[in-house]
Amino acid sequence: MDTLLLLKALILGLVEGATEFLPVSSTGHQIIVADFLAFTGERAKTFEIFIQLGAILAVVWHYRARIAHVLGTLGSESASRRLLLNLAIAFLPAAVLGLAFSKAIKEHLFNPVSVASALVAGGFVILLIERRNARPTVREVDAISGRTALMIGLAQCFALFPGVSRSGSTIMGSLLCGLSRPAATEFSFFLSIPTMFAATLYSLYKARDVLSMADVPTFGVGFVAAFISGLIVVRLFLAYVSKHSFIPFAWYRIALGALLLLYFQFHPWVGE
């Protein structure tokens, strides 16, 4: 068993779980950390896809009681049916566009310059949206309308561009639609479940020939690390947004984008 490889898997799993649900782009972090660790190639790409499942399950575990309640009361509570319908509405735009353009996006946009540019641009978008300081009109996820869910789903489509951040696009889109910060964050977390499950399982299916039993320890370590760090970050982030703005994340994105550009000026990118 390669101890160094397991250590790399641990680090990348922690990074994935820590960044997946924050508006900072897990892609940007994975690019720079994976390159620094010399963890590249087709198997590395499949690993990075697989550990997303650990991060997703962190959200499922955190909301397990709410999910069980919604599924158990679909026939008796309109609020449960409305939430499920809204998630389906918000899920569809990115799913359709992702299937249509994912190959072209990976071929032409998945590089440090594109990701860094998206990080910086996204940071300034967050600053502009926060500067509006608009009073929220929707404070609970259950109060979201179908039209608002569609608008949030359209906002999520921007995350198809590497470096934008799925959580960042959905949360900022939600704020523009009048949601409070806690409601925007919670709906983003709920929406991540079908979106990330679908994207991850589809990507794993396409990469099934790359996997082997020898990868189980490495993938397992990364999976568990992503789950644990994801669970911690989800809980801390929900507590944070109830009292604070997203402005620190905006400046962090801008700084990370600049770091990404600087790093790859001296370390030619060999890809994942």
UniProtKB/TrEMBL annotation:
Keyword DNA-binding: no
Subcellular location, record wording: Cell membrane
Protein source organism: Plasticicumulans lactativorans
Described purpose of this protein according to its UniProt entry: Catalyzes the dephosphorylation of undecaprenyl diphosphate (UPP). Confers resistance to bacitracin.
Membrane topology term: Multi-pass membrane protein
Family matches, as NCBIfam families: PRK00281.1-2, PRK00281.1-4, undec_PP_bacA
GO biological process assignments: cell wall organization; peptidoglycan biosynthetic process; regulation of cell shape; response to antibiotic
Name this polypeptide is given: Undecaprenyl-diphosphatase
EC id: 3.6.1.27
